């Protein structure tokens, strides 16, 4: 983007791209969160992995799950307990739910306890309905992809002003 200041110089906004190691991890019982995780991972060029698979860390971790009996699944708890700020630099949470509760708050709370940065605005909750039989539709996947891409773009691009004559 170019603009001219009063002194006649052209100011150019340069966007510096940062290389980030991104991971997408999910926990699911019904398969709904996996569908959303796969859409996010595909858009970001990585593979979505279950919380039960080995995890080595990431600059940016997308982590999603559901709520069962007002809590996250025990496998998600185990995964969250094992996280540390040395290998995971930032977390963004997503959740699929048939109810008003989501796993997002539980994930964010675990991140804060581990002193891993997490922003309250950087989360996504996909509500599927109360029947527990609904599956994510194409619009849900598109919503998840748009959200994930906007999260990465907001962290990936640092605008700096460069003055040119």
Instruction: Tell me the helix content.
Output: 25-40%
- Beta percentage is 25-35%
Number of domains: 1
Rounded to the nearest angstrom, the radius of gyration is 18 Å
Average pLDDT, rounded to a whole number, is: 78
Fold-level CATH name: Rossmann fold
Shape: globular
Q: Count of DSSP E strands?
A: 8
Task: Describe the sheet with the most strands.
Answer: 5 strands, parallel
What's the level 1 CATH class? Answer: Alpha Beta
Please give the alpha-carbon distance between the first and last residues.
15 Å
Tally of alpha and pi helices? 4
Q: Reading side by side through the largest sheet, how are the strands ordered?
A: 4-3-5-6-7
Order of helices and strands: EEEHEEHEHEHE
Structural class: alpha/beta
Q: Kindly report the name of the CATH homologous superfamily.
A: Flavodoxin domain
Low-confidence stretches: 1-5, 11-17, 158-165
Which short descriptors sum up this protein?
Rossmann fold; 4 helices; disordered N terminus; 3-stranded antiparallel β-sheet; disordered C terminus; globular; 165 residues
In short:
The chain has 165 residues and is of the alpha/beta class. The protein is 31% helix and 30% strand. The protein has one domain (16-158): Rossmann fold (3-Layer(aba) Sandwich).
What does this structure look like?
There is one protein chain. The protein has 165 residues and is an alpha/beta fold. It has one domain: Rossmann fold. 31% of the residues lie in helices and 30% in strands. The strands form 2 sheets. A 5-stranded parallel sheet has the order 4-3-5-6-7, sandwiched between helices. A 3-stranded antiparallel sheet has the order 1-2-8. Strand 1 and strand 2 form a beta hairpin. The chain is globular, with a radius of gyration of 18 Å. The N terminus and C terminus are likely disordered.
């Amino acid at each position: 983007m170019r603009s001219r200041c009063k002194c006649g110089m052209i100011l150019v906004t340069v966007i510096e791209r940062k290389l980030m190691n991104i991971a997408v991890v999910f926990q699911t019982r019904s398969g709904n969160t996996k569908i959303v995780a796969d859409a996010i991972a595909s858009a970001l060029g990585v593979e979505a992995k279950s919380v039960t698979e080995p995890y080595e860390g990431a600059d940016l971790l997308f982590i999603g799950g559901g709520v069962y009996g007002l809590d996250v699944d025990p496998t998600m708890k185990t995964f969250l307990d094992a996280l540390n700020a040395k290998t995971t630099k930032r977390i963004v949470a997503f959740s699929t739910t048939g109810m008003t509760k989501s796993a997002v708050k539980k994930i964010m709370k675990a991140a804060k306890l581990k002193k891993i940065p997490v922003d309250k605005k950087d989360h996504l909750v996909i509500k599927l309905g109360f029947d527990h039989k609904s599956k994510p539709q194409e619009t849900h996947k598109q919503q998840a992809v748009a959200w994930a891409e906007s999260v990465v773009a907001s962290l990936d691009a640092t605008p700096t002003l460069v003055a040119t004559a």
